[in-house]
Amino acid sequence: MTEFGGITLALSKGRIFEETLPLLAAAGIVPTEDPETSRKLILATNRPDVRLVIIRATDTPTYVQYGAADMGIAGKDVLIEHGGADLYQPLDLNIAKCRMCVAVPRGFDYEAAVRRGARIRVATKYIQTARDHFASKGMHVDLIKLYGSMELAPLVGLADAIVDLVSSGGTLRANGLVEVEDILAVSSRLIVNQASLKLKHDLLQPVIDAFAGAIKP
Ligand code: ATP
Ligand code: MG
């Protein structure tokens, strides 16, 4: 393991990276490379004491939990699935906003299935969230774990319904699906390793404060 005495911030590329740029700027941090064009997984910034590690969104809590990254930015969806153990979550950054919902093929009478207590098959990447949701409704479901493109599952008979993230609803519509239940509002949070916060408090706290001051309502 290599020693880097500064701040290591874990981010996923795509919307989280893009929407974090203004927050970083507020903390005086400007990446010197773009993760979309660079193949490097460790990106330098204008500040020698701040570096970024670029990882899959679902891996962010793991890097921060083990202290491989001091801080990270992760969606509430990812944090719930991870379990959130030992992670300090000081800020809802109000970025990468979407919602978790249940969707079914247009024409599938979800309400009727719920009323008659039918056992339905649900495909999702979000097993924990889905399990909690259907349990709270007293519904019996068979959950099928997928890693992406959940919208396909009901179209080819793999599942009756999906639990997925939606923002505009365009992907659902394009695949003949409709949202039938809202589960939870999702945005991304700042997560901080507890030991880092103690050991590197003077480095981390100003960044946390700058992020806090730059959050858009
Ligand atoms: P991949 O798309 O590469 O499989 P991923 O879905 O884990 O990976 P992103 O699509 O970049 O990664 O999503 C990262 C985070 O952004 C999610 O965890 C979620 O919190 C949020 N997010 C996902 N989809 C949307 C969306 N349509 N609109 C806004 N935010 C979203
Ligand atoms: Mg995605």
What does this structure look like?
The protein is of the alpha/beta class and about 220 residues long. The chain folds into 2 domains: about 5-95 and about 185-215, 3-Layer(aba) Sandwich (D-Maltodextrin-Binding Protein, domain 2); about 100-185, Periplasmic binding protein-like II (D-Maltodextrin-Binding Protein, domain 2, 3-Layer(aba) Sandwich). The protein has helices spanning about 15-25, 60-65, 75-80, 110-115, 125-135, 150-155, 170-175, 195-200, 200-215; strands at about 5-10, 40-45, 50-55, 70-75, 85-90, 100-105, 120-125, 140-145, 160-165, 175-185, 190-195. Strands 2-3-1-4-11-5 form a 6-stranded mixed beta sheet. Strands 8-7-9-6-10 form a 5-stranded mixed beta sheet. Strand 7, helix 5 and strand 8 form a beta-alpha-beta unit. Helix 1 (about 15-25) crosses helix 9 (about 200-215). The radius of gyration is 19 Å and the shape is elongated. The model has no long low-confidence stretch (mean pLDDT about 95). Adenosine-5'-triphosphate binds near residues 57, 58 and 75.
